[in-house]
Amino acid sequence: MTPVELREGDLDEFFRVPFEIYPPDSPYVTPMRADLERYLDPARNPLMRDGGGKLTFFTAWRDGRPVGRVTAHTHPASNTRHGTRRCQFGYFDCEDDVDTARALFDAAESFARDQGCDELVGSFNLTAMQQAGVLTEGFENQPYTDMVWGAPHLPRLLQTCGYEAVFPMSTFEFEVGARTADALLGDRQRAVLSDPDWTWKPITRGEFKARFEEARQCLNDGFSDNPMFVPLSPAEFDFQAGEMMWIVDPRIACVAHYKGEPAGVVICIPDLNPFQKATRGRVGLMTLIHFLRERLRRRRAVIIFYSVRRALHGRGLNGAMLHRVVKALFAGGYRRCGVTWIADENTASLRQMEKLGATRLQRLHLFRKGL
Predict the structure, then answer these.
(1) Beta partners for residue 132, in sequence order
(2) Which domains does the chain have, with CATH numbers?
(3) Residue 123 pairs with which residues in a beta bridge?
(4) Mind listing the pLDDT tens digit of every residue in the chain (371 residues)?
(5) Contact present, 312 and 258 (Cβ < 8 Å)
(6) Cα–Cα distance for residue pair 283/263, rounded to 1 Å
(7) Among candidates 341, 347, 348, which has minimal Cα distance to 366?
(8) Radius of gyration for the alpha carbons in the chain, expressed in angstroms and rounded
(9) Residue 87: how many other CB atoms lie within 10 Å
(10) Contact yes or no for 355/202 (Cβ under 8 A)
(11) What CA–CA distance (Å, rounded) separates 360 from 354?
(12) Is 12 exposed, middle or buried (0-12, 13-18, 19+ CB in 10 A)?
């Protein structure tokens, strides 16, 4: 077999890799090329620009075509907060060939050592609200927005390269029916919904900036004790979430206030993956037509995250918020909803999935190697 050639920093060919190695009918959905360009630009991505992180990316070539890719980056704020010397990899897509995978990870590991790191862990796809994990089960299922998909051979290649699976996670999917929301109601949730001290603020385009700043505050406070979490700066949050202004459906996302102060948030958006798959990740003459077509027939939504401030845990707010959102989903014509990754150790969120009758869509793990 022809030896593999490695190239660093070639964005066009990095973007091409999945289209070269995965069949057109695979569940893979590319990020928009313009978004990928932003994520991989250290001068624009605040994780690198403001936080002092270092970033590089590699493309593997064989016989004149790109057949593998991976990013490697450091996250100094995460290492400081969690007492680690970790480098993170992301966007790992590769042909089913061990030599190609080894070439990519040899380069990523060399970068990690040069940055003074003692482990390489992934997958983390770079942004403030990161896609995380390598798919290990559920390869046949179509992912929702902000979920990853990778071929079944990727975990095997990682293990062959010396990486171990850690930190198990799952994504979920549930049917949005007339009575789905009622399964979330108990005495505490009903008390919240009937108490005038609790108010509900839709995320409209006109008040988007104010609501999303409140969402950032609720996320940072509610997730503060979660493993690997690092509080997000306004710039980091806006870097990815700011673009939601153009796609948000104000009926299905809200910020809850308690006595006039932000208390909790549910960010739920229409599933954009059918649109992105139709465009193949590029803006062109048909982009607007694809967008309008998918908007007219959308039946899938995805909950990106939900969070309640720690001082209000145990009050029933989480279930009350989800109840309102699921009711709005049904009224808006949505019939299926995905939920992005939940760690196995997050028993509270897993209980919410049980109440919703959600089924596991994907199984994911981080993969780690000591250096």
Answers:
(1) 124
(2) 5-170 (3.40.630.30), 174-361 (3.40.630.30)
(3) none
(4) 788 999 999 999 999 999 999 998 999 999 989 999 999 999 999 999 998 999 999 999 999 999 999 999 999 999 999 999 999 999 999 999 999 999 999 999 999 999 999 999 999 998 656 789 999 999 999 999 999 999 999 999 999 999 999 999 999 999 999 999 999 999 999 999 999 999 999 988 888 899 999 999 999 999 998 888 999 999 999 887 777 767 788 899 989 999 999 999 999 999 988 878 887 878 777 767 767 677 667 889 999 999 999 999 999 999 999 999 999 999 999 999 999 999 999 998 999 999 999 999 999 999 999 99
(5) yes
(6) 38
(7) 341
(8) 21
(9) 27
(10) no
(11) 10
(12) exposed
* Token couple for 317: 């707010």
The position carrying tokens 């401030």 is 309
Pull the structure tokens for residue 166.
Answer: 């850690």
How far the first Cα of the chain sits from its last, in Å, is 29
SS3 314: coil
Q: What angle separates helix 317-331 from helix 347-356, to the nearest 10 degrees?
A: 40
Token digits for 185?
């109601």
Both tokens assigned to 37: 């360009």
Would you state the structure tokens that stand for residue 152, as one six-digit string? 């079944």
Give the tokens for residue 344: 């196995």
Q: Where are the alpha helices (DSSP H) in the chain?
A: 11-21, 33-39, 46-49, 76-82, 98-114, 153-160, 187-194, 208-222, 234-241, 273-279, 287-296, 317-331, 347-356
- CA distance linking residue 312 with residue 220, whole number of Å: 14
User: What is the residue whose two structure tokens read 């979490």?
Assistant: 229
Quickly tell me which residue has 């309008």 as its tokens: 292
Q: Which residue in this structure is represented by tokens 């509080």?
A: 231
Read off the tokens for 139. Answer: 């390869």
